[in-house]
Amino acid sequence: MTAPPAGPERPFFTVVIPIFNRAAMIPRVLGSLARQDFTDWEAVVVDDCSREDIAAAVAAFGDPRVRCVRHDVNRGVCAARNTAVAASRGRWMLNVDSDFELLDGAMTALHARCLAAPDDVGNVASVMSWDNGPPSPIPLPDADLTLDYHAYLRWVASLSHTEYFNCIRREVFEHVRFPEGRAYESEFNLNLAKRYRFQLVTVRACLAHTDAADRITRGPALQRAKRMLRDAPDWSRSVEGSLRDHGDAMRATSPDYYDRYAIHLANLRLLKGDRVGALDALGSAQARVVLRPRTLIITALGLVDRRLLALAQGVRS
After folding, report:
1. In sequence order, what are the beta bridge partners of 67?
2. Which residues does 38 contact at the CB level (< 8 Å), separation at least 6?
3. Is this model's pTM higher than 0.85 or not?
């Protein structure tokens, strides 16, 4: 990543907003920024080659702190985040997806926590609220956490729901980037935790909505199956990288956590048609995990036909 673009004094926060279609959600997410009592921010909206006129929807908001950048081809949410960071000027990056909104007072609370964070803390993460369930991560900590790499692995292995809201120091991106392609941020989170300490604060900064018709867990089963087959190569590559760079530490701190990744990799390799690679991934996990009924069913379906596996998982999700 290059240095911040030249221009006016750097804002404290850059709000990173990747979007594909969903123009109707722009007033909600940008409106939540406008309601903040903290004003030293900018927002970079990255239109990931939408069919809708995202630039017009952003311009209609009428705030000069908000800029829109467009991809010429659809590249995926993490690639859009990398584009936003490269175009940003802020000292800390707030990762706000198009179906999120910041809660009132969020920036003020996070600003204080970021100022207090030691220089070796790369992510001042916070609790996420949801419109359809309890806040995450689950279980919630009783107090703020500051974790080194191995403590982070033990902690995340203990969670039943891992999502939290990311507020990332700009310097992190000199060393760690989101994966290009259609994988999500798991590999990035592990790489960040290995290089910097991780902090989770009990502040509730973000509300995640689940009303988008194109969420990966919504829509017709056949559509979800096609998406799985399309995305499996990128996902597989990312999980392979996670196991390559973090597998030994996972095994040392939480063997069950390693096994979850190994089973996930086997599933992804089956979805992309790599039967031999899938069996190799299964062979690296503990036998008691491989022999669970669900794992055996998934493996059998994938060995018969990757499309059958995708359809079954599309129906189940």
Report:
1. 44
2. 12, 13, 107, 108, 111
3. yes
